[in-house]
Amino acid sequence: MTSTDNREGSFGTIRHLLMLAIHTGVLALAGSARAAVYWDDGFEPPQDLTGWDTNSSDSSISLTTEQAAEGAQSVKLRHTSLSVGEGPMIWRSITPSQDFYARFYLRTSPGFTYSTSNTKILLMRGNAYYPGWEFGSNDGALQLWVDASFDRSDNDVHLTSTPIPSDRWICVQSHIKYNTPGQADGSLEVWIDGQLKAQSDNREFVGPTPTSVDVNGNPVPSYATTDFIELYNERGVGDMYYDGIGFGDEPVPCLGSTSDGATGSSNGGSGGSATAENAEGETGGKDNGVGGGVKGADAGGGELAESGDEGGGGCRVSWGERTAPAGWLLSALAVALVRRRRR
To answer: How confident is the model at residue 179 (pLDDT cuts 50, 70, 90)?
Structure first.
């Protein structure tokens, strides 16, 4: 074989490796693009409630500097009656999802009074169908109701036994995974300040067909998604404060956490079994009483999107970290190709 043949063979090998590196880099970029915190709203000035809709123009829902889990502002809902149902509310459209993570911060004014028939706090569900995921309380402890599901009645309540405090903020994280139509592989998980407080596995939230209904006739079609989030001013007396509301297809970390949030979960797997041990968070946090970070089994990282940012961020592995090996290989092979072509 001549030296020309050897050079041509080397060129062919390098070209093959170069194309492989390019392909690997493209796949790495595509993979990282899938991991996102869709939005994370801290309600900071000069922003107002842009992006949120409301059914009321009264002052019972407002931005305030009285309390803040992050920055200087939060949203205050003033409750004035134990009997008012479906009162003033604000809501926001979210990316339609069947496997998602949400986070919000919550506290109340001292002496807040809850209704014995449920003070609604935050709701997530589809616009024209069920199931819905409703946080609320009837005794001061935070609870999560599954509002209509294919496999159970409306009385599907998941207790956290965690009181909603008036002297500090709590960080509430949740992970909802819809089931595959016709299979009981759905799940829900709730963490408070990084500790796993409620879990339900092997669930059939939606039915097997587009026309499925639950035992009460509520639509739970196979194509259902969660596509809006809503804050309620309903049945209670006192002030309730919200801050740091985030949503994504990756865990949304508690503020001050260096991990990716609720990582003691099945993390998208079906029927995963989380424990309080691997979901337990560190206490402390900021001086203003924000719950601490989450240890979790997966200590990734990634920065949060800024307040009001609809873009990405929050991926457990950053773009640079995930693409560095492919980028290095691409650069090295390009240099080698140029050097050989000059010989």
So the answer is: very high
The string of pLDDT tens digits covering residues 238-265 is 999 999 999 999 999 998 754 444 544 3
Average pLDDT over residues 60-86: 89
Residue 9: the pLDDT is 52
Domain, as residue range, for 145? 34-326
Buried b (16+ CB within 10 A) or exposed e, 96-111: ebbebbbbbbbbbbee
Residue 135 CA to residue 132 CA, distance in Å, equals 10
Specify if 24 maps to a domain: no
**189-209 burial by CB neighbour count: b if 16+ within 10 A, else e?**
bbbbbbbbbbbbbebbbbbee
Q: Does residue 13 lie within any of the structural domains?
A: no
Characterize 56-76 residue by residue with b for buried, 16 or more Cβ atoms within 10 angstroms of its Cβ, and e for exposed.
eeeebbeeeeebbbbeebbbb
Computed from CA positions of residues 295, 255, 188, 280, in that sequence, does the dihedral angle turn out positive or negative?
positive
**Domain containing residue 132: CATH number:** 2.60.120.200
